[in-house]
Design brief:
Helix 2 packs across helix 4, helix 6 packs across helix 11 and helix 16 runs antiparallel to helix 17. The protein is an alpha+beta fold. The protein is built from 19 helices and 14 strands. Strands 2-1-6-3-7-8 form a six-stranded mixed β-sheet, sandwiched between helices. It has a six-stranded antiparallel β-sheet with strand order 9-10-14-13-12-11, covered by helices on one side. The two termini are 22 Å apart. It is 57% helix and 10% strand. A hairpin with a 4-residue loop joins strand 11 and strand 12.
Amino acid sequence: EIAQLMSFRDCEELLRATNLSVVVHRGSSIFSSAGGNEQTYSLSKVTKDIDVFLSHNWTTPRRDKFLTLVYEYNYNMAVSVMLVASLILFALMATSVIPMVPDKTIEDRFPPYTGWACKVFSVPIYLLTMCFGREIRSAAGSPGPSLFLDKCCIDQVDREVQRRGIRKLGAFLSKSRRMLVLYSDVYLRKLWTIYEMASFLAIHNLKDLKIVPVVQPRIFFACLGFWWFYNITVVALRISQSFYHYMYATSLLGGYLCMLGLRVWIREKAAIETRVRHFTVEESLCANEADRPLVYHNIMCLMQGARLAEAGCPMEDALRAFNDLVRNTLPYAFVALDGFRAFPMRDYLLLGFAFDGVKALDWGATLWSEGWSFRFIFSESMYHVVWAGTWPIALVTLEFLGSYKVELLGCREKAYVGICVILVALVLAIFNQIILIIGDRARESDLFLLVLILVIILVWALFFVLCRDRRRYIPPDANPRCSTSSTSSASSDDGTRSIHLAPNEANLRNFAGLSDERIINIELDLQEEVLLAKDEGLVVVTGGYWTRL
């Protein structure tokens, strides 16, 4: 029965996949409704395997799913385009192709104008590439990884084909290399998404499961958008003598709003952790209660096939084993729950560049166009390089302070956040004056130039210490799929030997004790769950247990 659930034997036409370009097309319009038709089914095609199984709830807003998908898949492309565009804008300003804007706040010894294009255009270029870059790549013949999306890959018109496709949900998962979960607060409350996770955890390694809470990209884009708004406000206020008063007021307001938003994310992380730790499949919701016995039965088969529950055990024992699997395993899949930090290091780097890295390019282009010496340009631009690392450190500090007193609400919370922001702002103001003094003297003094370089090294060293991504640790007992270094073995009465391993070619080599050269032919067919190593006999795979006969 487990073989029927996990294979497409005699029904290969049901194994279909769409691609990333289809899913994110027109702001992920495919998520507008759960219903499908012949047109949506035609967006998928028959395939042999699937890159990513996309797991989500239809009640989650389409906007959140779109932002999460582009955050996950378009990020590196958007950063590359933004950096190239910023360098082009720098060159155009340095050669006076793009004119400067007047600046009455600059001292008499400097030109009374400054660069502006990087501050204004870099972030919008990044956001446009994030949203529409996949469309361009698709038109160029690169549609992205293949995805399973139920609306596209399971026939929604022919009820008999739809029923067969739904029953093969576990087989879709067995043919998927990874699973991406678009996690919302209802994910662990819905029976079908729980079943998807059950199937995946029963047949795949935990490292192949990635969970991205949909609230995380939303907060990141909000921070990035505010910092861009701050920069264009700076450009607009350069003509005013009261520029610095507005700048400080905007900085305080931005820090205040950021910390309030981060506290929302901190509470959400705590709620996720609590939900996972107290998970029970029996409390899940199902739109059609007639589906519940079918899903429970399939979960029982998966747990028994993966040797996570005893063969022939009652339904209650299988469901209890699944509950333990989720509680003990999922916390390690939530990479975003790592400590008090809200983002991975790549996000902090991008926020630092978007806030002060673009200022370094604009100011460097201004001085270059006037023919200032390289040393002068270097000492001036390094001021912004220091702050490109300092602002993310300040953000992490606000996150750390925001992780305390989370029980405060209303006016007390606003007062606590205000006090924290003012304290951080005072420290930053003092640090700013110190850097200004060092930067002014570094123009003439080799000693202060060395001090400035040391300050840059120290700031960025602190940045990497505070913002680096911590290694994802998964204890062996939290992983339903053991590696070759921690295999569990047993001997049967007939002398055969069973070993609990992940079903992949590398583990077969280790198990058979062969070198690459001695394995002449390997046929891996998860539909029939058989591995054939020529000249070495038959190795049968059942739920991850390999038996060499």
